[in-house]
Amino acid sequence: MTRAAPIIEIARLTAHYGDFQALFGVDMRLGVGETIAIIGANGAGKTTLMRTIAGIVSASSGTIQLDGRPITALSAPEIVMAGVAMVPEGRKLFPSLSVEENLLIGAYARKAAGDWTLDAVYGLFPILRERRNSPGTALSGGQQQMVAIGRALMSNPRVLLCDEISLGLAPVVIRDIYAAVPKIKASGTSIVVVEQDVGQALQIADRVYCMMEGRVTLEGSPADLSRAAIHDAYFGVSA
Amino acid sequence: MIWLDTLLQGVLLGGLYALFAAGLSLVFGVMRLVNLAHGDLIILAAYLILGVAAVLGVTPVVALLIAAPVMFVVGWLLQMQVFNRVLGDDILPPLLVTFGLSVVIQNALLEGFTANSQKLSLGPIETQSLHLGSVTVGVIPMMTLASAVAVIFLLNQLFYRTSLGRAFRATSDDVVTAQLMGIRPRRIFAMATGIAMVVATLAAFYLGARANFDPSIGPARLLYAFEAVIIGGLGSLWGTLAGGLVIGVAQAFGAAVNPEWQILSGHIAFVIVLLLKPRGFFPRATD
């Protein structure tokens, strides 16, 4: 299989929360137009990795490159402007903004027109058009997740980071949310999905990284990875 | 009929207090910063208008138009260079820094302009009045109230109709997630403080046109502004106008009963509202 040219390349990345080291020399790459899934148990470092790529957590060492350009030292707003948007864990909609305002704020830093407009997001998630004047936080969990994804898309990102987008949602809602991923991918956006639901991750990803205790313990395409290997990498013990 | 006149004068006075409070409310609403130097910054703006008018030989109105952008820059720089360094989870550092700034401004003005009272001279308009039926209202107080309503209206338009306003509200809601939208909170805060200083300059203009001012009166203006903001509900702009009117009307009725009771009546009204509605008339749902 030919490897897509990397849009994100991470090398020997470490990160700390105070004295606590959360990432230990993580290497990772995301190809142009590719979808990768990062799986792992609670505390594996998945969210820290996403927050470090997005600039919310500072890297202690190592590098993150976007299209060959180092972004490790950039602030979160600069990284958004460079083309990386994040759907944060817990959705984090702005309570004082309506659904439409939550979507529009996603385009705050956008400098040029792109594929993702309000109409395009409403096309992806039609229910949001009906609820566009409601407070964002008055929606159901699934609808809030749609707003969070739409809000990130409004910046017309080249890379979309999705952190635990199925967390706390009913299976039928998760299916609806994940049905949007191929459409987003078709727009040319490369996607990183952090997911605890391994089955879901394997369905949508071109490649999978498994993390445990701040380290990447397994990498490969879903077709190449055996269930036992994933189990070992996920839990750190043999099945 | 004297009560109607008293009510009207109180409402007009409340317009001035609303102007004092609007900038404070804006800054608190966006970044939860209680700027204890707000009153002194109003007085600084009044001296700036006075100084510009004297040095350039222009009218106070023209001086206001020059002073407003200058005060915007002062607010921007204060936020970027001072306030942003102390904003965080701990509310004490910003309180200490703005209190210190208050002391610095008062003493600098005292050094530069002495303790003598000053006034902005607007000419004949200062004494002009309109007869509305059986009551008479001054032109300047009416302009003050109209300006307060216009300022609150425009700030609301800014907050709820513009991209910058959305950024203000988003940053106020969640400063970390706002950064994921490409918003730079430090700049947003600086913009808010800059705008607050423009409003403070307008308040300073009417303060100087209506009464004498000297370097020591800033803290009392802060107190009225603070009471108006609390009565209206923290962070609510229309609430701030309502709060200013409550203070103004209470002071007017207090003064009508006994001139010595004017200031006390405003404070008593503040305490009564706090007892009945601890979060003010129009609290923000997320506060």
TrEMBL record, chain A:
One of its GO terms (biological process) is L-amino acid transport. CDD domains: ABC_TM1139_LivF_branched (cd03224). GO terms for molecular function: ATP binding; ATP hydrolysis activity; branched-chain amino acid transmembrane transporter activity. This is Branched-chain amino acid transport system ATP-binding protein. Residues 8-238 form the ABC transporter domain. It comes from Kaistia hirudinis. The lineage of its organism: Bacteria, Pseudomonadati, Pseudomonadota, Alphaproteobacteria, Hyphomicrobiales. Keywords: Amino-acid transport, ATP-binding, Nucleotide-binding, Transport. SMART domains: AAA. Belongs to the ABC transporter superfamily.
From TrEMBL, chain B:
It is found in: Cell membrane. GO terms for biological process: amino acid transport. Keywords: Amino-acid transport, Cell membrane, Membrane, Transmembrane, Transmembrane helix, Transport. The chain crosses the membrane at residues 12-34, 46-79, 91-110, 130-155, 188-207, 228-253, 259-276. Pfam families: BPD_transp_2. This is Branched-chain amino acid transport system permease protein. It comes from the Bacteria. Coiled coil: none annotated. GO terms for molecular function: transmembrane transporter activity. Belongs to the binding-protein-dependent transport system permease family. LivHM subfamily. GO terms for cellular component: plasma membrane. PANTHER family: AMINO ACID ABC TRANSPORTER PERMEASE PROTEIN (PTHR11795:SF445), BRANCHED-CHAIN AMINO ACID TRANSPORT SYSTEM PERMEASE PROTEIN LIVH (PTHR11795). It is a multi-pass membrane protein. Its main location: membrane.
